[in-house]
Design goal:
With 237 residues, the chain is α/β, with parallel strands linked by helices. Helices cover 42% and strands 8% of the residues.
């Protein structure tokens, strides 16, 4: 996979895609075994497959987003929710000036809570933007891939993220995955305390259970799930 699209202006003129696809990642800690760009790699992998499958306009990723809950770890960099909102609003306005009326946000970072509000506001009147994958899309993918963990227990740098990177970018994993599992089921005050109150390693999940085959099945399921989002956007006219 590649993090950046390589199409030309002429390519996109010929494509005349009805929807632009914007991957949104982060630059945040993912334990000692995964890189800071993990969420960006995940978002780009999904967006790249979605755009190729449905012949859509693939945009370059937003690589820094709202990662404030990870600020206790070296390397984590965040922007404010207002900055992220402004970036997405500007991107939508720009693609509309080029003739593309609808935008699909492919989000790889669970802490970007503001994205739901952005999409809701953009859809007043008729569907113009979607946020993908939804919680239901991720759950369907977990079921298809027969993951051993659920989304709550496998919150960060665990089974599903290791599986996806083993599938799309195995060279990015560092040694120590098998010994990285950490469980923290009670996290009621996460928004106040951040991740550091619940994990010293930065991991919450079962990293040791991640496999490339699971990653392949997760990605295939997500690409199939996107069709409902696309159908709703394009039916809006």
């Amino acid at each position: 996979m590649t993090l950046l699209p390589t199409t030309t202006s002429d390519d996109e003129k010929r494509r005349a895609a009805p929807v632009a696809v914007l991957p949104i990642g982060s630059f945040e800690q993912h334990g000692a075994h995964l890189p800071l760009i993990t969420d960006t790699v995940v978002a780009c992998a999904i967006a790249e497959r979605v755009a190729a499958t449905y012949d859509l306009f693939l945009l370059p990723p937003v690589t820094i987003s709202c990662s404030h809950e990870h600020s206790a770890w070296a390397g984590t960099v965040s922007i404010s929710h207002t900055t992220l909102t402004a970036v997405i609003t500007d991107v939508l306005a720009s693609v509309r000036r080029s003739g593309i009326e609808r935008l699909a946000l492919v989000n790889g970072h669970g802490g970007n809570y503001v994205l739901g509000n952005i999409v809701q506001e953009a859809n007043i009147g008729k569907p113009a933007m979607t946020l993908f994958p939804t919680r239901e899309d991720w759950q369907a993918a977990r079921t298809v891939a027969e993951l051993a963990t659920d989304a709550h227990d496998d919150m960060h740098a665990g089974e599903i993220e290791v599986s996806l990177l083993r599938h799309v970018a195995p060279d990015l994993l560092r040694p120590g995955v098998e010994a990285s599992d950490h469980h923290a089921p009670g996290r009621n005050l996460l928004l106040m305390h951040g991740m550091a109150a619940y994990t010293s390693s930065g991991v919450i999940g079962a990293a040791s259970k991640g496999t490339a085959d699971k990653g392949r099945m997760v990605l295939d399921s997500l690409v199939a799930s996107f069709k409902d989002h696309l159908d709703t956007l394009t039916a809006a006219g």
